[in-house]
Specification:
Layout: H1 2-12, E1 54-62, E2 68-76, E3 83-89, H2 99-109, E4 113-117, H3 135-150, E5 155-165, H4 167-178, E6 184-188, H5 193-199, H6 208-228, H7 247-256, H8 279-282, E7 296-302, H9 308-317, E8 323-328, H10 335-338, H11 345-357
Length: about 350
């Protein structure tokens, strides 16, 4: 009846023509978004060796925007019953075959069911155009990973955590603020991607004039991209390195551009993000409600990292005796990507044991 009244009103005002139409009843559509078919690499193509103590498989799940995300599952061999589970992603511009997979496999060796996933628009995950980033969608990606973990029969729904590396460390904390299903969060060698884009490194570009210049440059690039029908890439890590490259850029090069960490699907290893990807990060601010985060957080950072200030300042915003900061003496930013003799993996696992299993 309500549909008939609306239709009659529209006809009376000439808003539509008097021909048969289909009335869409949204109450009958309860399906998830159709899943884009992904082609996943089946052979082991990680930059780290496969563990003999962990079962590995691959899976696809869909986020709230309908983008299918590809993930590697790591499960302790012989594990039975419902396990505590952890979703891992990062660094920003990396893929699951790099640091996040290493962390996930290491934690699975310590008894957790873990997944390392590629964010939207990157790696083996879906979404077009490729290599575009969004603070909102990237936060959603972590919650979508939680959706998936909560659907598994071998996961305890009260024992789900997340771990983010580098730029995904900040995204992980923002995800935990937004999603109370996440019971424990680790941010390793974290960046605040909204702060570094809006303010520059060490807040050296923190003026309206400088931000407006960035907006103008990316707006001009949008015009060119539309005219050209393609998205210009910002290039990945500089290669070859300029003579005056700062040490942290040299560290990135030593990981992403050498056999140590190079991967063909990694934007940082190849041609980088779309140039306009930084635009939304200029107008989006993480951690406005950080003091309301009730679940447990562990921030891990090296005191020799150029990015150390992100972790220190973020930790100062958190409240509660379940928040911890672990400083790794002498460690640089990229040391915590893959240097297992430096990464405090046992301490990270102990944190998850405390807040997910005890």
């Amino acid at each position: 009846m309500r549909h008939q009244i609306i239709l009659s009103t529209l006809l009376a005002f000439g808003a539509i023509t008097a021909k048969p139409i289909e009335i869409y009843d949204m109450n009958t559509d309860k399906a998830l978004a159709p899943v884009e078919k992904l082609e996943l690499t089946q052979e082991w193509d990680k930059v780290f060796p496969k563990s003999d103590n962990v079962d590995h498989s691959k899976v696809v799940f869909v986020n709230r925007y309908g983008i299918p995300l590809a993930a590697d599952i790591y499960k302790p061999q012989g594990a039975n019953g419902k396990l505590a589970a952890i979703a891992v992603s990062g660094p920003f511009g990396a893929v699951k075959e790099q640091s996040s997979g290493l962390y996930a496999q290491q934690l699975a060796q310590r008894g957790f069911l873990t997944i390392a996933f590629d964010p939207s628009f990157t790696g083996e995950s879906g979404g077009m155009p490729r290599r575009v980033a969004s603070p909102d969608i990237n936060v959603e990606d972590f919650s979508a990973a939680v959706d998936y973990l909560l659907s598994r029969d071998d996961v305890d729904p009260q024992k789900v955590g997340i771990l983010g590396i580098c730029g995904w460390g900040g995204i992980a904390i923002q995800s935990a603020i937004n999603d109370p299903r996440i019971k424990a969060t680790v941010a390793s060698t974290m960046y605040d991607m909204t702060r570094v884009n809006a303010n520059g490194y060490f807040d050296s570009e923190n003026t309206p004039r400088q931000r407006n210049a960035k907006r103008a440059a990316m707006a001009a690039q949008r015009t060119l991209d539309f005219r050209n029908g393609s998205y210009k890439r910002a290039a990945g890590v500089a290669d070859p390195l300029p003579d005056d490259a700062p040490q942290f850029v040299k560290d990135y090069h030593a990981y992403y551009k050498t056999p140590r960490g190079y991967h063909v699907r990694s934007g940082n290893s190849t041609d980088g993000w779309n140039m306009t990807s930084n635009l939304p990060f200029l107008n989006f601010k993480f951690f406005d409600y950080a003091d309301e985060l009730e679940s447990a957080v562990l921030i891990v950072h090296g005191d020799k990292a150029h990015s150390y200030y992100f972790s220190k300042d973020t930790f100062a915003m958190l409240k509660g005796d379940n928040k911890q900061m672990l400083t790794v003496k002498g460690a640089s930013h990229c040391d915590l990507y893959d240097q297992l003799h430096i990464i405090p993996m046992d301490e990270i696992a102990a944190f998850f044991v405390k807040y997910l299993t005890e």
